[in-house]
Amino acid sequence: MQDSENAIELDDVSQAFIQHFGEMGSRWGINRTVGQMYALLVISEQPLSADQLAETLHLSRSNVSMGIKELNAWNLLRTVPRSGDRKTYFTTPEDVWEIARTLIAEKRKREIDPTLSMMRNALMGESAPGTSQYALSRIRDMHDLIELLVDWSDEMQTLQSTRLKQLFKLGSSVNKVLDLTDKVTRKK
Amino acid sequence: MQDSENAIELDDVSQAFIQHFGEMGSRWGINRTVGQMYALLVISEQPLSADQLAETLHLSRSNVSMGIKELNAWNLLRTVPRSGDRKTYFTTPEDVWEIARTLIAEKRKREIDPTLSMMRNALMGESAPGTSQYALSRIRDMHDLIELLVDWSDEMQTLQSTRLKQLFKLGSSVNKVLDLTDKVTRKK
DNA sequence: CAGTTATTTCAGAAATTACCGAAATTTAGT
DNA sequence: ACTAAATTTCGGTAATTTCTGAAATAACTG
What we know:
The structure is a homodimer. By secondary structure, chain A is mainly alpha-helical. Chain A is about 65% helix and about 5% strand. Chain A has helices spanning about 10-30, 30-45, 50-55, 60-75, 95-125, 135-155, 160-170, 175-185; strands at about 50, 80, 85-90. The first copy, chain A, has a three-stranded antiparallel β-sheet. In chain A, strand 2 and strand 3 (about 85-90) form a beta hairpin. In chain A, helix 1 (about 10-30) packs across helix 2, helix 2 crosses helix 4 (about 60-75) and helix 3 (about 50-55) packs across helix 4. The model of chain A has no long low-confidence stretch (mean pLDDT about 90). At the A-B interface, helix 1, helix 5, helix 6, helix 7 and helix 8 of A face helix 1, helix 5, helix 6, helix 7 and helix 8 of B. The first copy, chain A, binds a DNA duplex through helix 4 and strand 3.
């Protein structure tokens, strides 16, 4: 069995998990193989080499190289050196909250910030005479909403994982705090 | 000018806005034309017909039909009847918070829920003997994290737009509330 | 219900994206 | 520096997605 010298044995659950991430990949804006690669790395206790990824998932070595490049661009990998071995081995952060944080930061950079700055430009420049005031007002609405969410998300990024967990568990109980704030600061 | 009988005149800012949404479309998981269509509808004061969309954006009528179908599937459109006119006219909700809410709900349905239920399955079934315990623990971590976020998001969905705005403006001041909660409920 | 107008469906063309193998480059050990 | 192992780059093909025009269907009018 020449082929499986590097391949990892996968139980059914792991298999399903990887397969699912592959299929969802397109909806998440990553491609199938990158999704599978990351899924495998997430559930693998040991760090894996590019060869292991390729053979386990039946991908070409070059495709795996591309995938690693992509995942690295997203800051989603950790590389683990192994003494007496020239290969590089990859893992994911062990704290899933860290992964989530990274994902949010990177998604924001790619998918939100450009739009935000485009809108800012539209609003800042003294718009030429013919510019639709209605369009500008809609753009302002969108801009302000997104900016609010982004700023909030920034503040959340600074919190500890445990703190975040706490906060999210509070859920709509926070509403009560707002009630209070509301009463105290009510104008009139 | 046979062509422009339905086309809408667009100033530079509007043009740029639409163009940008087209380009970002792919990153957002929608295609260029659907992105442009929605952008145009967002900044158009009047509701627009499918023909107006097609001619303004230089798309085929059939493509616009597909796009409308898609946007409808996302619950992002309002149709406006016009007396004495058989065409249907489309707009977007005026409250951008409502749009955001819808977007979040639909993204969740398509991109999160399937994964959540896949993971739930993996965790529920008495997993076959050979199943990696490590894999299961990672899946549980991911599942719990995502479930927490989703539950929280559900609660947020029920709040009024003004309330939400308030909450997000609070930002990390909420942290102070947590400090308090922390001190009060601290287990010895 | 015959004639229009509006809308949708669908097969295939066009464009984009994903993937592979071969060649090139980099890295590390001797 | 030389060699061999590891990794990356790149041209081209395969697969997928987007978009169109033609035809079908539906909705309305007189």
